[in-house]
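Ticket reopened. Same input as before:
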Amino acid sequence: MLQFDLLKTDPTSHARRGALTLGHGVVQTPLFMPVGTYGTVKGVTPRSLHEMGAQIILGNTFHLWMRPGLDVLQGFGGLHGFEKWDKPILTDSGGFQVWSLGAMRRITEEGVHFASPVNGDRLFLSPELSMQIQTVLGSDVVMQLDECTPYETRGQLTTEGEARQSMEMSLRWARRSQAEFQRLNNPNALFGIVQGGMYENLRAESLAALVAMDFPGYAVGGVSVGEPKEEMLRVMAHTPHRLPAHKPRYLMGVGTPEDLLEGVAQGVDMFDCVMPTRNARNGTLFTRFGDLKIRNARHRADQQPLDSSCSCYACAGPSGVPWDQGGREGFSRAYLHHLDRCGEMLGPMLTTVHNLHYYLNLMREVRDALDAGEFAQLRARLRAERARGV
Amino acid sequence: MLQFDLLKTDPTSHARRGALTLGHGVVQTPLFMPVGTYGTVKGVTPRSLHEMGAQIILGNTFHLWMRPGLDVLQGFGGLHGFEKWDKPILTDSGGFQVWSLGAMRRITEEGVHFASPVNGDRLFLSPELSMQIQTVLGSDVVMQLDECTPYETRGQLTTEGEARQSMEMSLRWARRSQAEFQRLNNPNALFGIVQGGMYENLRAESLAALVAMDFPGYAVGGVSVGEPKEEMLRVMAHTPHRLPAHKPRYLMGVGTPEDLLEGVAQGVDMFDCVMPTRNARNGTLFTRFGDLKIRNARHRADQQPLDSSCSCYACAGPSGVPWDQGGREGFSRAYLHHLDRCGEMLGPMLTTVHNLHYYLNLMREVRDALDAGEFAQLRARLRAERARGV
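Engineering reply: fixed in the latest deploy. New output:
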């Protein structure tokens, strides 16, 4: 099931505030989805995700198909039961991961032939199989199988002709995905994905064809695939606001906090990205006043938390009272620096909590500002603060 | 400060129930202390330790001296502030870790010369310096510097003569530790450590000399150093119950759940061991019905939690209702097997919670049984259950 209620629109941009009802509950948009590739958002418990205000998480169909395998997931009635997450889940189609295998895969009209990275088995992923797998997973939002048009291949930019071929095949796969999804009587929601590379005319064609197919929601794909930032911003400025206003819009795999603000302004409702979790493990932390590298020796004796305005467990401890408000229960930069230096697991555990909290809280602030009719002000303030430096 | 109240003694063994008041609060004995070598119990947050009922944790003086270093710890007013743990902390003397450096160290009457494993610096640890470091750490329980008498060296069992030399030096170091501890006006409690290798006569001598020095508590050291299990049990049967009844007794570095039960029966009040945390990371889980290897393929699709009677977060989820009582919020063996196979951080996070909860809960059951005068029955039941197999 899927119902999208558009609650408010921003007069200064394409930004909108909505509520999206899915099989496992209602989520408030705009929102950010933490990525849980293998049935776990790396380094955090489901309880911690609940506490941070995560409303919906992502799973990767390809990875879960490989491990633990469909028979195991079926035994648990799907991914929710397996990973003990009872709120909504969105899964990708597996297409992007198969595509990322490079020389290990061969794409045909029928689907993608590839060798399993786990055991070398010869496998085949088609739009139909992707729908079957995502039906077993019980995903609240299912994504069509698409071909992710590359930005360049071996240094050669993708030509318009190549991008058209790829986009048109994705459209045929969209039809096959939709037909199989219906045949399976899947009660959840299937999203179509706009492709077309960096060519606006192709994106417009893709969009029109997908809108004609009447999906309950739409994604913008093929961004964050190695293109320069200006190119990404150009696609972000083109596609989202042209999608049907009464349906949810999902920008796949984007991005930095600044990208999310820009995406919201362009009319995007849903985001996912590995950046908060991956950067946390690499010691790059998002804060209100810019990014912080915890490995830098200057943090060695610093008693401040990562972000003195942050109420996450890492910065404010169990009470959640930020340093700026007199809270002194949080963990210091010195401690996090020490944990990183010693390779202690608690390091990435705490930094992951912080980065995810940062992203989830950013979107909470965006929603509150949209509710209050103050999105333009919030956007200007957040940008200025982030540019200040930590 | 230290006050030990002996609340009850078991008529069927040397087991006793006590309450130990330390600088950071009262702890109930017998108890188990999770090991937090580098200022973190590997893989768990302080909040999680609180929730599991940890009363006191251990820190390793040598490691913390190396990293983050005393200047950093001093800035935080000690280890409690640095690692955000506000209950009691016991620290070892650093002697065992320096001793473990093997060829990298040289032991003299004055102290131990060694090369820093972090940067190769030539360093020196004496009883006086150990007291100074532990004073900076602000440990509630400080341990004397001792020499850990090895069980064997290059295949040669330690002779009585060697064990005597070592034990007598440890006694001289005990006197120097005590003098320095007093000179520093350290307000906390210093424990003496009984040595003497596997020789009961030497242990009796060590014990008598330490008792004459009137420490507020005593440890049994030099066990769990590679000796056969029967030798360890022989020392455990000899030393603890001969220590002063009105003072706390700490058996260092022991052991399995069965060892803990035996230790309690022999009159031990305090235990520490890396086994629950280390085994968790290696996939060996303690359960009521024996040990379970989560890497075993037979768990691949098993929907049961690790221990169907367990109320930890891993086995029973946020509600804490065990599987046996109808709870279905816990994580399955299949899920934990999958996380381990995928190298996901949540795997060791959940298994560490389980193993620590198992140890802490075991000691809670022991205390309850002692309170109820049913220790002998509990001991027999737990042993039979553990021997059943999972």
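Chain A touches chain B through 40 residues (CB under 8 Å). The radius of gyration of chain A is 21 Å. Please confirm and we'll close it.
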